Amino acid sequence: MERIKIIGAGLAGLSAAIRLAELGIHSTLISIQPSERAQSVMAEGGINAALNTMGEDDSPAQHAADTLKAGVDLADPEAVRGLAEHAPEILNWLVNLGAPLSRKKGVVIQRNFGGQKKKRTAYAQSSTGKVLMTALIDECRKYEASAVVHRLSHHEFLSLSIREGHCEGVWVRDDYNGETFFLSGPVIIACGGLNGFFPGMTTGTTSNTGNAAAQLFSQGVAFANLEFIQYHPTTVKIPEKRMLISEAARGEGGRLFITRDGVPFYFMEEKYPELGNLMPRDVVSREMFNISRETGEQVYLDMRGLSKQIWKEKLEDLRDEIIYYLTIDPAKDPVPVSPGIHYFMGGICVDRSHRTNITHLYAAGECACQYHGANRLGANSTLGAIYGGRVAAETAAAEMPGDFPVAPSEKVIFEESVSALHTHQLRDILREGLGILRNEDEIRQAITHIDEMPVSSNSMEEKRKTFANAILLSALNRRESRGAHTRTDYPQKDDENFRKTTVVRYFNSTIHVHFEPIGREGSHD
What we know:
Helix content: 25-40%
Oligomer: single chain
Strand content: 15-25%
CATH architecture of the domain at 4-192 and 342-398: 3-Layer(bba) Sandwich
Structural class: alpha+beta
CATH superfamily of the domain at 4-192 and 342-398: FAD/NAD(P)-binding domain
Shape: globular
CATH topology of the domain at 4-192 and 342-398: FAD/NAD(P)-binding domain
Number of helices: 15
Strand order of the largest sheet: 8-2-1-12-22
Distance between the termini: 29 Å
């Protein structure tokens, strides 16, 4: 039986492999790192589901409404409705797999998270990603033992083989011995976000180099909403990356302030009395950026008011992490914080069934553009990865062709070397045009600087340059402010012209940007 190839072994990849196995479909799970080191392990805050066990009359409809509102009406309502409606089932499935989510008298406890008025975020202190991944890894191993799932760790995605708009399979390389080989069959991309384009600026692992996205884009795979980059409000600079201070801290009562006239000024509570410090992340990051720029003051996260019980039962691991890395005890002293790049709402353009514009190619998780619109709700990423992996698997299984070519249509020569100098130069240029606040002059200047970077023809460095320009051109063409994309030269939201999906493709050696009606993504082949 032909195996479906899955690139990436985090939450989305594991979810896809498990769902395919449940359907009796064999898969090959391909990843550079073992699942235990996937980006998904680093998710701290939780996973959303409207279980309605906290006495607040919650429902999937309210979960969907909050998701769409936070995404500033840019997400597909039908896709979001499916996500929210399946969330309770997914959470119960995770509990049955043995995920040790926090409970009281056998009932899963949920807490407040940004942009949501109801307690619907289930958690395991600040290590939710780790426990969810452990549960899925163990479940997947059952299918690996019966050879339904075949795992190829330490294997790197190199390229697709595409003939006349159809994906024939994938080229991979064994990073242990350097062997390059071709695997035929449908492909699900679940390779994570674009952290490798922003080393030192992101909370995520730069093992997610972004090379896969650059390669896919160079081969004509459509991407969408790349301009929407989420800055998490509470991060701290540590060597080579940003350390995340989970939104759980604010969900349990942490407060943001600057010092004004010698006393703390809790600016979020002053300006947004209803949700205060738990406004959506794009709002909080903008407010922090603006108040720091206007006053010259450092923003602090104040957790001194949290009870001993909250620290012990809900945030003990977060406290230990802050003490270890910052030598600050957050129960006694405020923590200096600033926004850092955390998540990429944009990615491979998929329809509601997670099809791409290439037949027999699918995508799920952070690498795909689905569910989050212009801004992601905290704890929707873990849910979106698991649910999206399921949907992609079901679609791939339903569209499984009778046979696939054993050999690719053409031999490919791979030049994959990317220098550290190139990576850091590209990062610095992207930072010029993709800050929390942006304008046309800054974006155009960044594009000019990228065009001036010398690279070899058809190299991975050239492909990364091209993809970086695709991000900037997406930001340039969206002449409005919406969610995580704030243009100082176009400060208003423009529903008439831009309540649409930004779609960008590369063909005829040119980047093409256009806008499509929401829900019509995937009709661009």
